[in-house]
Amino acid sequence: MGSPKTSARKRTIALAFFIALSLLPVIAAGGAVKVVRQEIEKAIMCPCEEKCGKVLANCVCDYSDGFRREIDRMIARGMSRQEILAALVKRYGPTVLAAPGTSNWLDLSAWIFPFIALAAGAFLVARLVRRWASPPPASPPTGPSGPSDAGSPSNSAYERRLQEELSRLEP
Asked: How many CB atoms lie within 10 A of CB 40?
């Protein structure tokens, strides 16, 4: 075998390798916790008193830091993403969610009605554009070659007045 120095060195290297290997799950779990926290922050709104209306991932108000610590405590207790979201909805109400769910008709309507409104608006705009682009309906010609309203009382009064004014102008 080798000298005592080389065998001690090999044992030290092996020990360091196994310690690093044993810490790997802890390091990986820390990264997973960060990913779960980021997913949760993107899925909920900041429930601050100022009603800033921002997704927690983008919020910088004073309340958001405490809210993030609350989420970290839930993650440390071993709660899953769905359990944390359910707990937050129970505490703050469904308005804490950044997007509506799909569990009941009201939530589904929040997803469906915008598309229905968009389709109805597109239909109305297309109809309006077609109406503007189409030629106006043909009207019967007027004047000497077409039908005239000479017999109507309103036209005869105007024609009489026109003739009177024209006769005054001519010498």
From this structure: 20
